[in-house]
Amino acid sequence: MNYDASQFQRDAEELGISLTDEQIRQFLRYYELLIEWNEKINLTAITEYQDVMKKHFIDSISLVKACDLNQEIRLIDVGTGAGFPGLALKIAFPNLEVTLLDSLNKRILFLEAVVRELGLSKVETVHGRAEDLARQKPFRETFDLCVSRAVANLSTLSEYCLPFVKTGGQFISYKSEKISEEIENAEKAIRILGGRVERQVEFCLPASDIYRNLSVIKKVKETDMRYPRKAGVPGRTPL
């Protein structure tokens, strides 16, 4: 099928991202695979072409508003789902070394199929829970950047994510609403986990009134080995 990618290209350019024809082809193929697989396993409720391009792909790569991605970065996407934002970021910024972590194996199989089909390198897919993986040596405090679009309060999300980040690195949470109060409530947890709230980057996605908030948390010291707590605990009883 022929897709009109002109709006997508304009949106990317508004973010300061210049995509090659090959990268646009990869995004379009990613969209096709998402729709194909979505009939078998539940990957997304958003399926309309323009909606996926804006609310998943452009939303994912809007991370450029919060940090410079044109450098060598080891990135982990916690609770990646259908690959948002991690896989979309990898297509837009091939220099990134990306780990996609999800607790559902069906989603991992989908991601592996996309990575194979698009011929992407330096992408690792991992099936597991953040609480378990963040305790393992190859993962703990080894990433420059951790990102997550997962729906959880910032205290819980920080406990899942900050243990993956090396000192001096960043954890950036994607939110779709104003979260000043949520950040205030999470500050103690973030401090306990070795982080510090740096800033919030607020904006609307290009050519839309869709509000987004990137919460930038810097890792200032190592995370105590007590964290993350056992699977399920961070969600039930946030720090």
The number of helical segments is 9
Mean of residue pLDDT values: 96
Described by strand count, sense and barrel closure, the largest sheet is: 7 strands, mixed
Task: Please state the structural category.
Answer: alpha/beta
Main β-sheet, spatial strand arrangement: 3-2-1-4-5-7-6
Which second-level CATH architecture applies? Answer: 3-Layer(aba) Sandwich
How would you describe the overall organization of this protein?
This protein has 239 residues and is α/β, with parallel strands linked by helices. The chain has a single domain, classed as Vaccinia Virus protein VP39 (Rossmann fold, 3-Layer(aba) Sandwich). It is built from 9 helices and 7 strands. Helix 4 links the parallel strand 1 and strand 2. Helix 1 packs parallel to helix 3 and helix 7 runs parallel beside helix 8. The protein is globular, with a radius of gyration of 17 Å. The model has no long low-confidence stretch (mean pLDDT 96).
Short description:
The chain has a single domain (6-236), classed as Rossmann fold, CATH 3.40.50.150. Helix content is 38%, strand content 22%.
Mind sketching the topology for me?
Layout: H1 6-14, H2 21-38, H3 49-61, E1 74-78, H4 86-92, E2 97-102, H5 105-118, E3 123-127, H6 130-133, E4 143-148, H7 154-161, E5 165-175, H8 180-192, E6 195-204, E7 211-219, H9 233-236
Parallel strand pairs: 1-2, 1-4, 2-3, 4-5
Antiparallel strand pairs: 5-7, 6-7
Helix pairs in contact: 1-3, 2-5, 3-4, 7-8
Keywords:
globular; single chain; Rossmann fold; 239 residues; alpha/beta
